[in-house]
Design brief:
By secondary structure, the chain is an alpha+beta fold. Helices cover 42% and strands 19% of the residues. The strands form two sheets. Strands 5-6-4-7 form a four-stranded antiparallel beta sheet, covered by helices on one side. It has a three-stranded antiparallel beta sheet with strand order 1-3-2. 23% of the residues are buried.
């Protein structure tokens, strides 16, 4: 199932892909639990604009590009910097979190070949409510279904992504992963 992203999410995803494929890219500086809005990745503004315009070949893409950058900046996903007399785009940590969610949303899902289900049990403390909410939202994007409040199951081959998710939100002590033969989902 192909998910159609809202325009601003698609634009942010396109920017990330342009930055990622660029030779000589500044390394992505992102400790999994960092809340610091440091320069995570940037490319010169003009290069990114020209790449995006070329990929989208729209008559008014120049205006649209600027509007989308402005919207993403207002939402805290991007910042612009001046580097050696050039404009650069910076993806903030909030933007990286958004990109992570977009990646989960757009990921191709395949059912497990062994017909087993991935089950996740968790008891995340109230002090980590924000991480717990992000975690639940991300589980939905991966294709998990809620069996009970803290018991989720998934028929897709998402073990690697699930482990990455647990690591990203630093939740390992509160989670158990199981592989089960069947699920009684009503």
């Amino acid at each position: 199932m192909k998910i159609k992203l809202p325009l601003t999410e698609k634009f942010l995803w396109d920017l990330y892909k342009i930055c990622s494929k660029t030779k000589g890219a500044i390394d992505l500086i992102f400790p999994p639990n960092s809340s610091v809005d440091s320069v995570l990745k940037y490319r010169f503004y003009g290069y990114i604009r020209d790449e995006w315009n070329q990929q989208n070949k729209k008559e008014k893409s120049q205006i649209l590009f600027s509007q989308l950058v402005r919207r993403l900046k207002q939402n805290g996903y991007l910042k612009t910097l001046k580097i050696k007399d050039n404009k650069a785009i910076m993806i903030t940590s909030k933007g990286i979190n958004k990109l992570f969610k977009i990646q989960l949303k757009t990921m191709e899902r395949t059912k497990r070949k062994d017909n087993k289900w991935q089950m996740i049990l968790f008891d995340i403390p109230e002090g980590k409510r924000k991480q717990r909410n992000y975690f639940r939202e991300s589980l939905r994007y991966l294709g998990y279904q809620q069996l009970q409040k803290s018991i989720w199951v998934c028929q897709y081959n998402t073990l690697k992504e699930t482990k990455d998710l647990i690591k990203r939100y630093n939740l390992k002590p509160f989670i158990e992963l199981l592989l089960i033969d069947r699920v009684g989902l009503g």
